[in-house]
Amino acid sequence: MRRLLLALPFALLPLAIAHADDTTVKHGSLGTHEHGTARVNAALDDQTLALELQTPAMNIVGFEHLATTDADKAAVAKARALLEKPLALFGLPAAAGCSVTSQHLQSPLFGDAMPDDDGDDDHDQHAAGEEHHHSEIHASYALTCTAPDKLKALDTAQLFKTFPATHKVVVQLIGPTGQKGLDATPDNSALSF
């Protein structure tokens, strides 16, 4: 029941969708597939912090095709290892006493099947003779924080440093003071709880 309560705000949370441009492609649960842009949803309820990251794979590994070369496979393995460290990626202070209670990483690059938004398997691109896949990486984390009052901000600065192809992170946060949002950039990367 508690997981449902934490997930419900995200189901109801209106995500601002940027105006479409040449790099934006409608796809899956991201709403838009925009290279350089990621989305982070965060909810703090008592001592439980839920985090969700959705991003085009291009932002994380530099490509969206399945890894076939040794270099591509190494890039995917490195990215996965970095994504498995949410405490570092989201700048959570040690004083908050947060520990990861569960995490789930999903992407076609990790061997997971991802649902196709319209079911046509990029039909228009195949019909035009193009082979282009839009792979995303979804990461969800549940953390328990023994001193949640020490969580002053969710900082995406390390996310930008770790994955430099990410230029903007659309952050939606639900915390003790209500719902907030920020289009985070490397120069403006923190949103207070």
From TrEMBL:
<feature type="compositionally biased region" description="Basic and acidic residues">
    <location>
        <begin position="123"/>
        <end position="135"/>
    </location>
</feature>
<keyword id="KW-0732">Signal</keyword>
<feature type="signal peptide">
    <location>
        <begin position="1"/>
        <end position="20"/>
    </location>
</feature>
<dbReference type="InterPro" id="IPR021253">
    <property type="entry name" value="ZrgA-like"/>
</dbReference>
<dbReference type="Pfam" id="PF10986">
    <property type="entry name" value="ZrgA"/>
</dbReference>
<feature type="region of interest" description="Disordered">
    <location>
        <begin position="108"/>
        <end position="135"/>
    </location>
</feature>
<protein>
    <submittedName>
        <fullName>DUF2796 domain-containing protein</fullName>
    </submittedName>
</protein>
